[in-house]
Amino acid sequence: MYPERFSNLPAYAFPRLRALLDAHAPGGEVVHMTIGEPKHAFPGWIVDEIAAHAEGFGQYPVNEGAPALLTAAGDWVARRYGVRLDPATRLMALNGTREGLYNAMMALCPEAKRGKQPLVLVPNPFYQVYMVAALSVGAEPVFLNATEATGYLPDVAGLAPEVLDRVAVLYLCSPSNPQGAVATRAYWAEVIALAERHDFRIFADECYAEIYRDSPPPGVLEVAAEMGADPERIVAFHSLSKRSNVPGLRSGFVAAGPESIRHMRQLRNYAGSPLPTPLQHAAARLWADEAHVIESRRLYARKYARADEIMAGVPGYVAPQAGFFLWLPVEDGEAAALRLWRETGVRVLPGAYLAQDVDGVNPAKGFVRVALVAPEDEMAHGLTRLRDCLYG
User: What does the angle CA 189 – CA 351 – CA 98 come to, to the nearest 5 degrees?
Assistant: First the structure.
């Protein structure tokens, strides 16, 4: 006896990739460019911070986040977005933002909307937890193709009013994974206005907000504050994984209206998995420090420049505005990834593994995702081999 709602889930992207590639020998020195796992150095003092508070491993951690961590996160929001949030009522620590993106749906999505099954809007391609969270609460995920024609962001405004009236939650990632597109202030304002008009929440996944080329991407919290929008409309997620190069720390936070936070904290009391106390101390110090973030962004700027140089002249190449992925057009993503592996040893992810079919067509089939996380010279070597193999 198993739940029917999960019976048709596709294999997760990375087991699916292993099934595609691992039966074949690599055609050269292996370069991993699949998973978005940052490789820049994290601050060495993190180890000292954890050791200094190691006695905390002998205690149950604070479920919603220690006051010092929530204060540090709130101070960062104020510096970054110019919005002051009460840490006691507007913030909650997360054991990685994937946990938050999933459990926020459990806590906040209603069982029905206007007497019907609620809809959850999901950009297509997307981070896979969005779809599974919607299915877990009995909502219907609606996949909105995010393609070149829509600026690689979903066209929410193009939906019919009767569809928007059934929407309970919109998941929106900016900067987007995988395309690196940035939601402008005007775009945020438009979707916030739609949320106000049609009574739905925006789950804003902003985990890549600190990796960008020139200007900091605008955030949903600042635009909502400027508009005077209902704070309960906005649920924003941030992470140290990408910002501070510590994916193994499993630390992020969620910012939302007081009632939304109250509901999320209540559920977390029963079903949550809080961050160990020594790691909360390390996370608080990371949110308070900008020097390591600036240095990491400098390294990404060099990688952007190298990637642009290597990929110049490749038909359809679009330099990402932010994040650390390239979204490269190919004839068929699976065939391209397999050929690249067998001929060069470079490992990339077929775009179709990050998307769902809409009207029988997968909008990401003709793409591969390439992560720019390896050291610069290794990354450049991998991109050169990729270019020569797929576009030469």
Answer: 60
